[in-house]
Design brief:
The chain is of the alpha+beta class. The protein has 4 helices and 8 strands. The chain has 3 domains: 96 residues, no CATH class; 40 residues, no CATH class; 75 residues, no CATH class. 24% of the residues are buried. Bound molecules: zinc ion (ZN).
Length: 217
């Protein structure tokens, strides 16, 4: 079995080296999949502009932190008139634009946050050698469709949109393991109002969400 099948099953990368470092185990890998399409015009990338390395925090292996040093390619967009001259490939199921964590690690962290919330999630991640913070964990919860009735078991955690400036409260359906709503502010009155209108199934008249269109500005 190749090392790629162990560390990156089904993912188009080739492992070129593995070594120990201060931050944990470092896996050097290179993207080797089909060239991507230009995100602006869908023209297939053919000509490589350059290559560079980016670091992705990965899920731990044998209790040690794992970092993937991933070599990716930048391609020219050769379609005349496209406003994008070059673009960088993303590796499906592994990397995303601007993200410093792998997709798999983000899924782990999202599950941890859903089950135990941001505060305990941060402590659990520290024990598991997963580098993150509470605000980052809570930010992984996607904006959900708001249910008409409150879940049977409701988890509540507060977080900062901007630290010391603007706060919110995330509500989690613990049994379904998913976020159900994000409230503006962190005061008990707001939460009580949400409970009140969702307990009676009158979410459409909820003063917090008159149109069910998301968190009020
Ligand atoms: Zn293009």
């Amino acid at each position: 079995m190749a090392i790629e099948d162990v560390l990156f099953p089904g993912i188009d990368v080739r492992v070129t080296a593995v070594h120990a470092a201060v931050e944990g185990v470092v896996v050097e890998a290179a993207a080797c999949g089909r060239p991507p399409d230009c995100p602006s015009c869908d023209c297939a990338g053919r000509r490589v502009h350059s290559r560079y390395r980016r670091s992705l925090a990965e899920r731990t292996v044998a209790g040690r932190s794992l970092v993937t040093s991933l070599r990716v390619r930048r391609f020219f967009c050769e379609r005349a008139g496209c406003r994008r001259r070059t673009f960088v490939e993303q590796v499906p199921d592994l990397s995303e634009r601007y993200r410093r964590h792998s997709i798999g690690l983000r899924q782990w962290m999202r599950s941890i946050t859903t089950f135990v919330g941001g505060r305990l999630g941060k402590r659990l991640c520290q024990i598991l050698q997963l580098p993150t913070g509470r605000t980052h964990l809570l930010g992984l919860l996607t904006d959900p469709p708001v249910p008409e009735r409150a879940p049977r078991v409701l988890g509540v955690d507060e977080f900062a949109f901007r630290k010391g400036w603007r706060y919110g409260t995330v509500l989690v359906d613990v049994e379904a393991a998913r976020a159900v709503d994000v409230l503006p502010g962190r005061d008990a009155v707001t939460f009580a109002a949400w409970l009140n209108c969702h307990r009676c199934g009158a979410a459409g008249r909820c003063p917090l969400r008159p149109s069910q269109g998301g968190v009020p500005p």
